Amino acid sequence: EAGVAQSPRYKIIEKRQSVAFWCNPISGHATLYWYQQILGQGPKLLIQFQNNGVVDDSQLPKDRFSAERLKGVDSTLKIQPAKLEDSAVYLCASSPGQDEQYFGPGTRLTVT
Amino acid sequence: GENVEQHPSTLSVQEGDSAVIKCTYSDSASNYFPWYKQELGKGPQLIIDIRSNVGEKKDQRIAVTLNKTAKHFSLHITETQPEDSAVYFCAASKWGTALIFGKGTTLSVSS
């Protein structure tokens, strides 16, 4: 089966600009996660969706980050305005049930 | 909240040797413990996982053990090969929640 798809793979923007990332989960997976991975660290949750509803967004910086999962399938994550500290890899993961998570290749964001 | 500690941060072994990576967790309610392998420029790949009702699980050269009393779990790789070189992450979660990751172990296997 096809894995989790993400685009773009790389993005370079200047601080204060906006950027959007797209994720298409594995077919049939109801749960979708966005993680942020800063260089040299493990991924950290930004937001969790169950179908098209938000389960956990407690760690999402809501003043600048937003995410949606319309129709319960693909999802977009937006940053506006970007800061230097947002430079990281943004990973999307999906789960068929309650625990196993499968990750996409990630989007590497560089904010200059 | 949950906190996962992972050791060592780097590990160098000779091809054919065994490698062991250890993790501890703080939340006794955690019940799912996966291990991921991440190669440069790629997303984390699930390589093995264990649930709290199991003490040990093996898949070819990879095994994971879980000690719920001590709240620690370990990854064992036997007969290491150069292609095992990567960053390995342990993680923990409770049913239906997001994963909490350790900081990762960079494994280098030299031939």
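The first strand of chain B starts at residue 4 and ends at 7.
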